[in-house]
């Protein structure tokens, strides 16, 4: 609001440049893919890379075709805010979540970059340095802006979900190596290109990023189909009557939450989720179904046999080898299991014991797993499971 008021009071400077960068940000927002930015899951961390690069380049713009620019930090924020609001109207109308977080992050990162750059350029400090020193200053500003954006992306997710902040921030920083680095580099190159060639440099440098954005949309669509295929395979045990309805989806959702609580990275969480969805698929090879699909109470040898059958089925489906390994080793002795297999084993047993056990089922199931000892279930996994259940309100409070 302060930026809009200052810009309206003093009038926009270099209106042609403001209009050009505003249109660029607007196009980027209109073409952004759905999903919530940030570390809230498998969603894309930067849904509008073209808009982000345009906003960053306007914040770092010092010259336009050799002429000094005087728009300042407040006008940079006002132009980006107005364009982002216009571009977000269709997404808000369609009910897509994460739009407000996305807008707040965009405005704050632009303000941070502009406040760091524009005063230095206006006072002539950057002009006196020139050459490599100027490039190093831009690089340092880009790094600081990227770090600021990572913190701003992790904080609202942490406040909304109460997931640990450290792993969320680590995932955001890891995401900077991908599309984040491309956005920062394109934003800086755009600003330098406009300084030399004028506003005609914008469409030239925008086209590669726009094509990359379209390519990533196709990749995201393929990954969604891949996940839906795995979910359909996981439902085969429910359709055949081997497991209760919704068991695989519940185990997958809770396993992912426990894995995030324990600090697993996003690729590890994806493997964990896929393995949890398909953890019971080995029961399709049984002649006599297990009563209610409850494998947690079976003898260890029988659990091991079902797990190996499931791993063989997963390998034949073409799913990642890591998923098959987790499915195969979910029945191994606890000290020998990898962490994803320990999580799947504990969450599967919890869901089997909690369903149909009455009002106190969740608490009884968790207590039974704790009493089983470290030889059956990992204590650190059970502790993380208890924290997730308590935070999400899935357990009932102890009476008295």
Structural summary, described in words:
This protein has 400 residues and is an all-alpha fold. It is 70% helix and 1% strand. It has helices spanning 2-10, 15-30, 49-59, 72-93, 99-122, 125-129, 131-161, 165-197, 201-234, 236-239, 247-261, 266-277, 300-316, 321-328, 339-354, 361-371, 379-391; strands at 63-64, 67-68. It has a two-stranded antiparallel sheet with strand order 1-2. A hairpin with a 2-residue loop joins strand 1 and strand 2 (67-68). The longest helix is centred in the middle third of the chain and has 34 residues, at 201-234. It is elongated, with a radius of gyration of 26 Å.
Find the structural class using helix and strand composition: mainly alpha
Question: What is the typical, i.e. mean, pLDDT?
Answer: 82
Distance between the termini: 50 Å
Q: Describe the sheet with the most strands.
A: 2 strands, antiparallel
Largest beta sheet: strand ordering? 1-2
Radius of gyration based on Cα positions: 26 Å
Number of helices: 17
């Amino acid at each position: 609001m302060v930026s809009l008021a200052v810009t309206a009071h003093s009038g926009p400077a270099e209106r042609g440049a403001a209009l050009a960068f505003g249109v660029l940000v607007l196009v980027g927002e209109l073409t952004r893919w759905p999903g919530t930015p940030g570390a809230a899951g498998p969603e894309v961390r930067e849904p509008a890379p073209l808009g982000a690069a345009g906003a960053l380049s306007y914040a770092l713009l010092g010259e336009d075709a050799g002429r000094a620019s005087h728009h300042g930090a407040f006008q940079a924020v006002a132009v980006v805010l107005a364009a982002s609001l216009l571009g977000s109207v269709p997404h808000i109308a369609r009910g897509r979540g994460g739009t407000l977080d996305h807008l707040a992050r965009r405005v704050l990162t632009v303000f941070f970059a502009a406040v760091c750059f524009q005063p230095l350029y206006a006072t002539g400090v950057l002009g006196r340095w020139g050459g490599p020193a100027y490039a190093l200053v831009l690089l340092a500003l880009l790094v600081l802006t990227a770090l600021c954006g990572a913190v701003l992306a992790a904080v609202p997710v942490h406040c909304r979900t109460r997931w640990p902040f450290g792993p969320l921030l680590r995932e955001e920083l890891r995401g900077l190596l991908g599309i984040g680095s491309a956005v920062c580099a394109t934003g800086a190159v755009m600003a330098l290109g406009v300084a030399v060639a004028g506003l005609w440099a914008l469409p030239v440098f925008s086209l590669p990023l726009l094509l990359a954005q379209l390519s990533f949309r196709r990749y995201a669509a393929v990954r969604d189909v891949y996940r839906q295929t795995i979910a359909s395979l996981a439902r085969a045990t429910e359709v055949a009557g081997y497991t209760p309805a919704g068991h695989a989806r519940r185990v997958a959702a809770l396993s992912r939450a426990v894995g995030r609580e324990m600090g697993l990275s996003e690729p590890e969480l994806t493997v964990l989720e896929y393995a949890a969805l398909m953890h019971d698929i080995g029961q399709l090879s049984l002649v006599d179904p297990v009563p209610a699909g409850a494998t947690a109470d079976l003898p260890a040898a029988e659990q091991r046999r079902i797990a190996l059958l499931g791993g063989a089925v997963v390998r034949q489906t073409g799913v990642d080898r890591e998923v098959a390994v987790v499915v195969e080793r979910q029945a191994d002795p606890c000290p020998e299991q990898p962490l994803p297999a320990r999580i799947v084993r504990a969450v599967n047993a919890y869901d089997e014991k909690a369903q149909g056990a009455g009002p106190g089922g969740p608490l009884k199931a968790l207590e039974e797993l704790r009493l089983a000892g470290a030889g059956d279930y990992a204590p650190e996994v059970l502790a993380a499971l208890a924290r997730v259940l308590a935070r999400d309100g899935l357990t009932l409070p102890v009476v008295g």
